[in-house]
Request: fold
Amino acid sequence: MNHLRFSGLLVVAAAAALSACSQATPGLDAFRPATPAAACYDRATQPQTAVVDTHLHFRPFGGVAVPFDEVMGYLRDTGVRFVNVYGIGQMLPVDSPCTYYLDCPGTPVIPTLKNDFANANSLLANPPDGIHVTLSMTFPDLARPETVLAGIELLDTEYPGMFRWMGEVNLVKQALFPNGHEPVPHGVIAEWAPFMTVLRERGIPIAIHSDLGSEEEPTRYLPLMQAVLDRYPDNRIVWMHMGLSRELTTLPAAEHIAMMSAMLDRHPNLMLDITWRVIDDSYFSRADYQPLYVDFLNEYSERILPGTDFLASSDKDFEVYKSELEVTSRILAFVNDEAFRNIALGGNYFRLLGLDYEAPRVCPTVRVTGVSPLR
Reply:
């Protein structure tokens, strides 16, 4: 038999054997610390999508939400085993015909506790099988910090011990400017101290949406996030979308990466959220940018959190969620095994929240002498 043909058959046979072992994402039990060491995750045959969605909005800005248990079904069917259940802290008026704020410029979008109550009630009524849930407080209005402690206390009273995350909360979100949102004044950040102390004492992370800037002024709002990080160095802070937005899609990758690297180096408790398909569309998928971001994710792999930023409004369905998971996970197929374990397999998420789970080790790459590796 021709040697090359024989080698090719070996590769096909090896791939078939691996495929027979498992094509699917393992269940929750595979993430228990007691799982045998032999139960590794095979990147050649198992999904390259993240098993944790740290940024999923179960409630829309307005209108009807996709039913809670239906969204949980989306997670099971796509291999997501861990999820942060976000509401939307800022809602359109109940008499608004819109489900999305961009469709209603001029209509105020007001912070409220409604969605946090709705999510907690849904979780109590429909505890999901095979999905680990972390409830998030999305109500805080960072421009009115005097109201935040009262909201936390109310949730403590109604749902004791159920909320272990805060966010997504807005420091500055340019997309909401037509709906009455303004950047949090620099001087108000000092007034966050009471609720930031509560979060720090409880080990609760806060996930902050803070745009870097716009095409015309790419770093206009960077000083706001710098002020937060400088004033609250002991809080666990997650920076949503790496500071990027639809208003900033042309920032050179090298400049963006340099900024993020400097912030991570200076602030040990800072983590970055790489959710939202806008980041992949404008940055991660560009042929000239992708290698730079892969190197960045590999270097800072213990500081990165994945997710979709899916919004469960009634005009969305399973196919939309599946697509957004695939797009937001796409770059993870190119990172090294250590980064894949930390980011896609949940290692960072488990450590951040102190969860009794462990990311499975990644199986060694299967190689056959004389031919290219399977991946």
